[in-house]
Protein backbone atom coordinates (compact mmCIF):
# COMPACT_ATOMS: atom_id res chain seq x y z
CA UNK A 1 0.00 0.00 0.00
CA UNK A 2 1.41 3.39 -0.97
CA UNK A 3 0.14 4.99 2.24
CA UNK A 4 -1.94 3.41 4.97
CA UNK A 5 -4.29 6.35 5.40
CA UNK A 6 -6.37 8.44 3.00
CA UNK A 7 -8.87 11.22 3.45
CA UNK A 8 -12.35 10.25 2.25
CA UNK A 9 -12.51 11.06 -1.46
CA UNK A 10 -8.78 10.60 -2.06
CA UNK A 11 -7.12 7.93 -4.18
CA UNK A 12 -5.93 4.75 -2.43
CA UNK A 13 -2.98 3.04 -4.13
CA UNK A 14 -2.44 -0.68 -3.69
CA UNK A 15 0.69 -2.50 -4.84
CA UNK A 16 -0.06 -6.05 -5.97
CA UNK A 17 1.96 -8.88 -7.46
CA UNK A 18 0.00 -11.89 -8.71
CA UNK A 19 0.40 -14.65 -11.28
CA UNK A 20 -3.33 -14.49 -11.98
CA UNK A 21 -4.50 -12.84 -15.20
CA UNK A 22 -6.81 -10.57 -13.25
CA UNK A 23 -7.98 -9.75 -9.75
CA UNK A 24 -10.56 -7.67 -7.89
CA UNK A 25 -10.51 -5.91 -4.57
CA UNK A 26 -13.35 -6.12 -2.07
CA UNK A 27 -13.60 -3.35 0.48
CA UNK A 28 -14.95 -3.69 4.01
CA UNK A 29 -15.22 -1.41 7.02
CA UNK A 30 -14.51 -2.57 10.59
CA UNK A 31 -17.36 -1.53 12.86
CA UNK A 32 -19.91 -3.27 15.06
CA UNK A 33 -19.34 -6.02 12.52
CA UNK A 34 -17.30 -6.34 9.36
CA UNK A 35 -19.37 -4.60 6.68
CA UNK A 36 -18.95 -5.22 2.95
CA UNK A 37 -18.98 -1.98 0.96
CA UNK A 38 -18.04 -2.52 -2.65
CA UNK A 39 -15.98 -4.50 -5.13
CA UNK A 40 -13.63 -2.97 -7.68
CA UNK A 41 -13.69 -3.56 -11.38
CA UNK A 42 -11.19 -6.22 -12.53
CA UNK A 43 -7.54 -5.20 -12.63
CA UNK A 44 -5.02 -6.91 -14.95
CA UNK A 45 -2.65 -9.07 -12.94
CA UNK A 46 1.13 -8.81 -13.13
CA UNK A 47 3.78 -10.78 -11.26
CA UNK A 48 6.94 -9.23 -9.87
CA UNK A 49 9.45 -11.09 -7.72
CA UNK A 50 10.41 -9.62 -4.33
CA UNK A 51 13.86 -8.06 -3.90
CA UNK A 52 16.54 -10.54 -2.76
CA UNK A 53 17.82 -10.45 0.79
CA UNK A 54 21.37 -9.04 1.02
CA UNK A 55 22.43 -12.24 2.80
CA UNK A 56 21.08 -14.33 -0.08
CA UNK A 57 19.20 -17.58 0.15
CA UNK A 58 15.67 -18.20 -1.15
CA UNK A 59 12.94 -17.74 -0.10
CA UNK A 60 14.34 -14.87 1.98
CA UNK A 61 13.56 -11.39 0.68
CA UNK A 62 14.80 -8.02 1.79
CA UNK A 63 12.73 -6.28 4.50
CA UNK A 64 14.83 -3.13 4.08
CA UNK A 65 13.64 -1.84 0.70
CA UNK A 66 10.30 -1.28 -0.99
CA UNK A 67 9.14 -4.23 -3.05
CA UNK A 68 7.95 -2.00 -5.92
CA UNK A 69 4.98 -4.16 -6.91
CA UNK A 70 2.72 -2.83 -9.70
CA UNK A 71 0.44 0.00 -8.53
CA UNK A 72 -3.36 0.02 -8.79
CA UNK A 73 -5.53 2.97 -7.81
CA UNK A 74 -9.00 3.20 -6.32
CA UNK A 75 -10.76 6.48 -5.48
CA UNK A 76 -12.46 6.27 -2.10
CA UNK A 77 -16.01 7.68 -1.94
CA UNK A 78 -16.34 11.04 -0.19
CA UNK A 79 -19.13 9.68 2.03
CA UNK A 80 -17.07 6.84 3.54
CA UNK A 81 -17.27 7.07 7.33
CA UNK A 82 -14.01 7.56 9.25
CA UNK A 83 -12.64 4.19 10.29
CA UNK A 84 -10.32 1.29 9.60
CA UNK A 85 -11.04 -0.50 6.33
CA UNK A 86 -10.01 -3.88 4.92
CA UNK A 87 -9.03 -4.57 1.32
CA UNK A 88 -9.39 -8.23 0.30
CA UNK A 89 -7.80 -9.32 -2.98
CA UNK A 90 -9.75 -11.89 -5.05
CA UNK A 91 -7.73 -13.57 -7.80
CA UNK A 92 -9.25 -14.98 -10.98
CA UNK A 93 -11.99 -14.13 -13.44
CA UNK A 94 -15.55 -13.09 -12.68
CA UNK A 95 -16.75 -16.64 -12.07
CA UNK A 96 -13.98 -17.12 -9.51
CA UNK A 97 -14.95 -13.89 -7.80
CA UNK A 98 -18.60 -14.88 -7.66
CA UNK A 99 -17.63 -18.18 -6.06
CA UNK A 100 -15.60 -16.47 -3.30
CA UNK A 101 -17.81 -15.83 -0.25
CA UNK A 102 -17.83 -12.46 1.48
CA UNK A 103 -15.78 -12.18 4.65
CA UNK A 104 -17.26 -11.93 8.11
CA UNK A 105 -15.60 -11.06 11.45
CA UNK A 106 -13.77 -14.40 11.45
CA UNK A 107 -12.10 -13.58 8.12
CA UNK A 108 -10.28 -10.37 9.03
CA UNK A 109 -7.01 -12.21 9.62
CA UNK A 110 -5.23 -13.75 6.67
CA UNK A 111 -3.16 -13.22 3.55
CA UNK A 112 -4.26 -11.31 0.42
CA UNK A 113 -5.52 -8.62 2.80
CA UNK A 114 -4.44 -5.10 3.73
CA UNK A 115 -5.99 -2.58 6.07
CA UNK A 116 -6.04 1.18 5.75
CA UNK A 117 -7.42 4.18 7.61
CA UNK A 118 -10.01 6.56 6.15
CA UNK A 119 -9.66 9.98 7.74
CA UNK A 120 -12.44 12.59 7.72
CA UNK A 121 -12.41 15.62 5.45
CA UNK A 122 -13.21 17.77 8.51
CA UNK A 123 -11.17 16.34 11.43
CA UNK A 124 -12.98 16.21 14.75
CA UNK A 125 -16.46 16.70 13.30
CA UNK A 126 -17.40 13.03 13.59
CA UNK A 127 -15.89 12.53 17.06
CA UNK A 128 -13.43 13.96 19.58
CA UNK A 129 -11.71 10.61 20.20
CA UNK A 130 -8.75 9.74 17.94
CA UNK A 131 -7.72 6.07 17.70
CA UNK A 132 -4.08 5.66 16.67
CA UNK A 133 -3.47 2.38 14.87
CA UNK A 134 0.04 1.15 15.75
CA UNK A 135 1.26 0.70 12.19
CA UNK A 136 5.01 0.92 12.87
CA UNK A 137 4.79 -2.01 15.28
CA UNK A 138 2.72 -3.97 12.79
CA UNK A 139 5.46 -3.58 10.16
CA UNK A 140 8.25 -4.46 12.60
CA UNK A 141 6.73 -7.93 13.02
CA UNK A 142 5.42 -8.43 9.46
CA UNK A 143 7.30 -11.43 8.04
CA UNK A 144 6.21 -10.81 4.42
CA UNK A 145 4.88 -14.35 4.12
CA UNK A 146 2.04 -15.57 1.91
CA UNK A 147 -0.04 -18.73 1.67
CA UNK A 148 2.70 -20.72 -0.02
CA UNK A 149 5.98 -19.05 0.97
CA UNK A 150 7.46 -18.43 4.42
CA UNK A 151 9.94 -15.60 3.90
CA UNK A 152 10.38 -14.77 7.60
CA UNK A 153 12.00 -11.38 7.21
CA UNK A 154 11.33 -8.40 9.46
CA UNK A 155 13.07 -6.51 12.28
CA UNK A 156 13.39 -9.69 14.35
CA UNK A 157 14.08 -12.46 11.86
CA UNK A 158 16.73 -11.94 9.18
CA UNK A 159 16.86 -8.16 9.71
CA UNK A 160 19.04 -5.82 7.65
CA UNK A 161 21.40 -3.45 9.46
CA UNK A 162 23.07 -0.39 7.97
CA UNK A 163 25.76 1.98 9.11
CA UNK A 164 25.00 5.70 9.15
CA UNK A 165 24.91 7.47 5.79
CA UNK A 166 24.65 11.14 4.87
CA UNK A 167 20.86 10.96 4.92
CA UNK A 168 20.06 8.17 7.37
CA UNK A 169 21.16 7.05 10.85
CA UNK A 170 22.65 3.67 11.63
CA UNK A 171 20.30 0.89 12.58
CA UNK A 172 18.00 -1.82 11.31
CA UNK A 173 16.16 -0.65 8.22
CA UNK A 174 12.58 -1.66 7.44
CA UNK A 175 10.34 -0.83 4.50
CA UNK A 176 6.60 -0.36 4.98
CA UNK A 177 6.09 -1.27 1.32
CA UNK A 178 6.00 -5.04 1.78
CA UNK A 179 3.11 -7.53 1.70
CA UNK A 180 2.26 -9.87 4.55
CA UNK A 181 -1.46 -9.90 5.26
CA UNK A 182 -3.34 -9.01 8.43
CA UNK A 183 -2.72 -10.44 11.92
CA UNK A 184 -2.52 -7.87 14.73
CA UNK A 185 -5.55 -5.90 13.54
CA UNK A 186 -7.73 -8.98 13.92
CA UNK A 187 -6.50 -9.76 17.44
CA UNK A 188 -6.16 -6.43 19.26
CA UNK A 189 -8.10 -3.88 17.23
CA UNK A 190 -11.12 -5.50 15.62
CA UNK A 191 -12.84 -6.61 18.86
CA UNK A 192 -12.24 -3.22 20.49
CA UNK A 193 -13.41 -1.23 17.47
CA UNK A 194 -16.57 -3.36 17.32
CA UNK A 195 -17.19 -2.71 21.02
CA UNK A 196 -16.62 1.04 20.63
CA UNK A 197 -19.19 1.23 17.85
CA UNK A 198 -21.72 -0.98 19.65
CA UNK A 199 -21.44 1.37 22.63
CA UNK A 200 -21.98 4.44 20.47
CA UNK A 201 -18.57 6.09 20.83
CA UNK A 202 -17.79 8.48 17.97
CA UNK A 203 -14.18 7.77 17.00
CA UNK A 204 -11.85 8.92 14.25
CA UNK A 205 -8.64 7.13 13.25
CA UNK A 206 -5.03 7.78 12.24
CA UNK A 207 -1.77 5.92 11.67
CA UNK A 208 1.65 6.38 13.26
CA UNK A 209 2.84 8.18 10.14
CA UNK A 210 -0.07 10.63 10.36
CA UNK A 211 0.89 11.45 13.95
CA UNK A 212 4.58 11.69 13.05
CA UNK A 213 4.06 14.12 10.17
CA UNK A 214 1.42 16.50 11.51
CA UNK A 215 2.09 18.52 14.69
CA UNK A 216 -1.51 19.80 14.58
CA UNK A 217 -3.14 16.39 14.11
CA UNK A 218 -4.32 16.17 17.73
CA UNK A 219 -5.70 19.73 17.96
CA UNK A 220 -9.34 18.79 17.13
CA UNK A 221 -9.40 15.91 19.62
CA UNK A 222 -9.82 15.60 23.38
CA UNK A 223 -8.66 11.99 23.76
CA UNK A 224 -6.02 9.91 21.98
CA UNK A 225 -6.20 6.10 22.17
CA UNK A 226 -3.19 3.78 21.94
CA UNK A 227 -4.38 0.17 21.65
CA UNK A 228 -2.77 -3.27 21.86
CA UNK A 229 0.92 -3.57 20.99
CA UNK A 230 2.40 -0.09 20.42
CA UNK A 231 6.16 -0.60 20.62
CA UNK A 232 7.69 1.69 17.96
CA UNK A 233 7.44 5.50 18.15
CA UNK A 234 9.25 8.31 16.39
CA UNK A 235 10.56 11.33 18.24
CA UNK A 236 7.98 13.54 16.54
CA UNK A 237 5.15 11.23 17.67
CA UNK A 238 6.27 11.60 21.28
CA UNK A 239 6.68 15.35 20.93
CA UNK A 240 3.20 15.77 19.48
CA UNK A 241 1.51 13.61 22.12
CA UNK A 242 3.40 15.31 24.95
CA UNK A 243 2.34 18.72 23.62
CA UNK A 244 -1.25 17.47 23.43
CA UNK A 245 -1.16 16.48 27.10
CA UNK A 246 0.51 19.73 28.20
CA UNK A 247 -2.26 21.68 26.47
CA UNK A 248 -4.96 19.79 28.39
CA UNK A 249 -5.56 16.89 26.01
CA UNK A 250 -5.96 13.36 27.35
CA UNK A 251 -4.47 9.99 26.41
CA UNK A 252 -5.60 6.44 27.21
CA UNK A 253 -2.89 3.82 26.72
CA UNK A 254 -4.92 0.61 26.38
CA UNK A 255 -1.61 -0.90 25.32
CA UNK A 256 1.77 -2.13 26.52
CA UNK A 257 5.41 -2.41 25.46
CA UNK A 258 4.47 1.14 24.55
CA UNK A 259 7.05 3.51 23.09
CA UNK A 260 9.94 1.07 23.67
CA UNK A 261 11.96 1.76 20.51
CA UNK A 262 12.52 5.04 18.67
CA UNK A 263 12.19 4.97 14.89
CA UNK A 264 13.50 7.38 12.26
CA UNK A 265 11.14 7.54 9.26
CA UNK A 266 12.98 7.74 5.93
CA UNK A 267 12.16 7.53 2.22
CA UNK A 268 9.30 9.98 2.57
CA UNK A 269 7.77 7.93 5.38
CA UNK A 270 7.74 4.64 3.44
CA UNK A 271 10.48 3.10 5.64
CA UNK A 272 12.14 3.57 8.99
CA UNK A 273 15.47 2.94 10.69
CA UNK A 274 15.84 1.88 14.32
CA UNK A 275 19.04 0.94 16.14
CA UNK A 276 17.67 -2.00 18.12
CA UNK A 277 19.27 -4.90 19.96
CA UNK A 278 18.17 -7.30 17.21
CA UNK A 279 20.63 -9.45 15.34
CA UNK A 280 23.49 -7.94 13.34
CA UNK A 281 25.30 -10.74 11.54
CA UNK A 282 26.23 -13.25 14.25
CA UNK A 283 25.93 -10.68 17.04
CA UNK A 284 22.87 -11.01 19.29
CA UNK A 285 21.95 -9.01 21.21
CA UNK A 286 23.38 -6.04 19.32
CA UNK A 287 24.51 -3.47 21.89
CA UNK A 288 24.42 -0.61 22.50
CA UNK A 289 20.94 -0.27 21.05
CA UNK A 290 20.92 3.50 20.83
CA UNK A 291 17.23 3.85 19.90
CA UNK A 292 16.03 2.36 23.18
CA UNK A 293 14.12 5.26 24.73
CA UNK A 294 14.96 4.99 28.42
CA UNK A 295 18.77 4.57 28.83
CA UNK A 296 21.00 7.61 28.97
CA UNK A 297 23.23 8.33 25.97
CA UNK A 298 25.30 6.78 24.52
CA UNK A 299 23.43 3.57 25.44
CA UNK A 300 20.04 5.00 24.47
CA UNK A 301 17.94 8.10 23.85
CA UNK A 302 17.75 9.27 27.46
CA UNK A 303 14.02 10.04 27.45
CA UNK A 304 12.18 7.37 29.49
CA UNK A 305 8.87 6.41 27.89
CA UNK A 306 7.20 6.34 31.31
CA UNK A 307 7.69 10.11 31.63
CA UNK A 308 4.79 10.18 29.14
CA UNK A 309 2.91 6.92 29.75
CA UNK A 310 3.57 6.44 33.48
CA UNK A 311 4.74 2.86 32.91
CA UNK A 312 7.53 1.04 31.08
CA UNK A 313 8.22 -2.40 29.68
CA UNK A 314 11.51 -2.43 31.59
CA UNK A 315 9.44 -2.81 34.80
CA UNK A 316 7.10 -5.35 33.20
CA UNK A 317 7.64 -8.42 31.06
CA UNK A 318 6.52 -10.80 28.34
CA UNK A 319 4.84 -14.22 28.47
CA UNK A 320 5.88 -16.13 25.32
CA UNK A 321 3.70 -18.58 23.45
CA UNK A 322 0.36 -18.51 21.67
CA UNK A 323 -2.17 -15.76 22.39
CA UNK A 324 -3.61 -15.87 25.01
CA UNK A 325 -1.97 -19.23 25.72
CA UNK A 326 -1.30 -20.44 29.24
CA UNK A 327 -0.79 -17.07 30.89
CA UNK A 328 -1.72 -16.58 34.56
CA UNK A 329 -5.21 -15.19 35.02
CA UNK A 330 -5.03 -13.48 38.40
CA UNK A 331 -5.89 -9.96 37.17
CA UNK A 332 -5.01 -6.62 38.78
CA UNK A 333 -5.17 -6.27 42.56
CA UNK A 334 -7.36 -3.21 43.05
CA UNK A 335 -6.06 -0.11 44.84
CA UNK A 336 -7.95 3.13 45.57
CA UNK A 337 -11.34 1.63 44.78
CA UNK A 338 -12.98 5.00 45.49
CA UNK A 339 -11.28 6.52 42.41
CA UNK A 340 -13.60 7.50 39.56
CA UNK A 341 -11.93 4.91 37.32
CA UNK A 342 -13.64 2.20 39.40
CA UNK A 343 -17.03 3.91 39.67
CA UNK A 344 -19.85 1.41 39.24
CA UNK A 345 -17.62 -1.67 39.31
CA UNK A 346 -18.36 -2.64 42.91
CA UNK A 347 -14.71 -3.61 43.29
CA UNK A 348 -13.05 -3.35 46.72
CA UNK A 349 -9.46 -2.56 47.63
CA UNK A 350 -9.25 -4.22 51.04
CA UNK A 351 -9.32 -0.96 52.98
CA UNK A 352 -12.39 -2.28 54.83
CA UNK A 353 -10.31 -5.09 56.30
CA UNK A 354 -11.23 -7.70 53.71
CA UNK A 355 -9.27 -9.06 50.80
CA UNK A 356 -8.91 -6.73 47.80
CA UNK A 357 -10.68 -7.70 44.59
CA UNK A 358 -8.86 -8.42 41.34
CA UNK A 359 -9.88 -6.66 38.14
CA UNK A 360 -10.06 -9.10 35.24
CA UNK A 361 -9.53 -12.19 37.41
CA UNK A 362 -10.16 -15.36 35.41
CA UNK A 363 -9.24 -13.74 32.09
CA UNK A 364 -5.92 -13.34 30.28
CA UNK A 365 -5.97 -9.59 30.96
CA UNK A 366 -2.30 -9.37 31.93
CA UNK A 367 0.03 -9.87 28.95
CA UNK A 368 1.13 -11.11 26.60
CA UNK A 369 3.35 -8.08 27.28
CA UNK A 370 2.87 -5.73 30.19
CA UNK A 371 4.36 -2.50 31.49
CA UNK A 372 5.01 -1.33 35.04
CA UNK A 373 6.32 1.46 37.24
CA UNK A 374 9.05 1.26 39.87
CA UNK A 375 7.18 1.01 43.16
CA UNK A 376 7.42 0.31 46.87
CA UNK A 377 4.78 -0.71 49.38
CA UNK A 378 3.84 1.80 52.05
CA UNK A 379 3.04 0.91 55.65
CA UNK A 380 -0.50 -0.12 54.73
CA UNK A 381 0.67 -2.44 51.97
CA UNK A 382 -0.37 -0.10 49.16
CA UNK A 383 1.93 0.00 46.11
CA UNK A 384 3.09 3.53 45.33
CA UNK A 385 5.26 4.67 42.44
CA UNK A 386 8.67 5.84 43.59
CA UNK A 387 9.39 7.96 40.53
CA UNK A 388 12.99 6.74 40.54
CA UNK A 389 12.58 5.45 36.97
CA UNK A 390 11.11 8.69 35.58
CA UNK A 391 7.44 7.98 36.25
CA UNK A 392 5.66 11.30 37.02
CA UNK A 393 5.17 12.19 40.68
CA UNK A 394 1.41 12.37 40.19
CA UNK A 395 1.15 8.77 38.95
CA UNK A 396 -1.36 6.83 41.05
CA UNK A 397 -1.22 3.02 40.93
CA UNK A 398 -4.79 1.73 40.64
CA UNK A 399 -4.04 -1.91 39.93
CA UNK A 400 -0.98 -4.13 40.25
CA UNK A 401 0.01 -7.69 39.42
CA UNK A 402 3.46 -8.82 40.55
CA UNK A 403 4.89 -11.05 37.83
CA UNK A 404 5.54 -14.64 38.87
CA UNK A 405 7.33 -16.84 37.93
CA UNK A 406 10.10 -14.70 36.42
CA UNK A 407 12.90 -15.56 33.99
CA UNK A 408 15.75 -13.04 34.34
CA UNK A 409 16.39 -12.84 30.60
CA UNK A 410 14.74 -11.53 27.49
CA UNK A 411 17.18 -12.83 24.89
CA UNK A 412 16.91 -16.44 26.09
CA UNK A 413 13.16 -16.86 26.50
CA UNK A 414 11.72 -19.37 28.94
CA UNK A 415 8.23 -20.67 28.31
CA UNK A 416 5.80 -20.66 31.23
CA UNK A 417 7.53 -17.61 32.76
CA UNK A 418 7.39 -13.85 32.60
CA UNK A 419 10.57 -12.92 30.77
CA UNK A 420 11.80 -9.69 32.30
CA UNK A 421 15.44 -9.00 33.13
CA UNK A 422 16.18 -6.58 35.94
CA UNK A 423 17.35 -3.59 33.91
CA UNK A 424 17.77 -1.02 36.72
CA UNK A 425 18.53 -2.93 39.93
CA UNK A 426 19.06 0.21 42.00
CA UNK A 427 15.76 1.82 40.97
CA UNK A 428 13.08 -0.74 40.24
CA UNK A 429 10.93 -2.80 42.59
CA UNK A 430 9.57 -6.22 41.73
CA UNK A 431 8.55 -6.45 38.07
CA UNK A 432 4.79 -5.90 37.96
CA UNK A 433 2.08 -5.09 35.46
CA UNK A 434 0.75 -1.73 36.57
CA UNK A 435 -2.50 0.13 35.83
CA UNK A 436 -2.52 3.78 36.78
CA UNK A 437 -3.21 7.40 36.00
CA UNK A 438 -1.45 10.76 36.17
CA UNK A 439 -1.97 14.38 35.19
CA UNK A 440 0.39 16.68 33.30
CA UNK A 441 -2.01 19.35 32.07
CA UNK A 442 -4.29 16.67 30.62
CA UNK A 443 -4.83 13.21 32.06
CA UNK A 444 -3.01 10.04 31.02
CA UNK A 445 -4.46 6.59 31.79
CA UNK A 446 -2.23 3.51 31.41
CA UNK A 447 -3.76 0.04 31.27
CA UNK A 448 -0.29 -1.51 31.39
CA UNK A 449 -1.12 -4.56 29.27
CA UNK A 450 -1.43 -5.39 25.57
CA UNK A 451 -4.60 -7.47 25.90
CA UNK A 452 -6.86 -4.95 27.63
CA UNK A 453 -8.61 -4.27 24.31
CA UNK A 454 -9.29 -7.99 23.80
CA UNK A 455 -10.85 -8.52 27.24
CA UNK A 456 -12.94 -5.36 26.91
CA UNK A 457 -13.86 -5.83 23.25
CA UNK A 458 -15.07 -9.39 23.78
CA UNK A 459 -16.70 -8.33 27.09
CA UNK A 460 -14.92 -11.08 29.02
CA UNK A 461 -14.95 -9.14 32.31
CA UNK A 462 -17.62 -6.69 33.46
CA UNK A 463 -15.14 -4.73 35.58
CA UNK A 464 -12.75 -4.15 32.68
CA UNK A 465 -15.65 -3.04 30.50
CA UNK A 466 -16.89 -0.57 33.12
CA UNK A 467 -13.41 0.84 33.78
CA UNK A 468 -12.96 1.35 30.03
CA UNK A 469 -16.28 3.18 29.79
CA UNK A 470 -15.37 5.34 32.78
CA UNK A 471 -12.06 6.31 31.16
CA UNK A 472 -13.62 7.04 27.77
CA UNK A 473 -16.57 8.97 29.21
CA UNK A 474 -14.39 11.12 31.47
CA UNK A 475 -11.42 11.74 29.21
CA UNK A 476 -13.26 12.29 25.92
CA UNK A 477 -14.00 15.79 27.18
CA UNK A 478 -11.19 18.08 28.21
CA UNK A 479 -11.36 19.25 31.81
CA UNK A 480 -9.32 21.79 33.72
CA UNK A 481 -8.87 19.40 36.63
CA UNK A 482 -9.25 15.63 36.79
CA UNK A 483 -8.22 13.80 39.95
Structural account:
The protein is 14% helix and 28% strand. It is of the alpha/beta class and 483 residues long. The protein is globular, with a radius of gyration of 22 Å. It comes from Streptomyces amakusaensis. Residues 61-454 form the N,N-dimethylformamidase beta subunit-like C-terminal domain. This is N,N-dimethylformamidase beta subunit family domain-containing protein. Pfam families: DMFA2_C (PF20254).
Strand content: 25-35%
Mean pLDDT: 96
Largest sheet: 9 strands, mixed
How would the global form be characterised? Answer: globular
Question: Could you say which structural class the secondary elements and strand pairing correspond to?
Answer: alpha/beta
Quote the distance from N terminus to C terminus. Answer: 43 Å
Major beta sheet, strand line-up: 12-9-13-15-28-27-24-19-20
**Compute the gyration radius: what is it?**
22 Å
User: What share of residues is helical?
Assistant: 10-25%
Protein name: N,N-dimethylformamidase beta subunit family domain-containing protein
Pfam families: DMFA2_C
Domain N,N-dimethylformamidase beta subunit-like C-terminal: 61-454
InterPro entries: Class_I_gatase-like, DMFA2_C
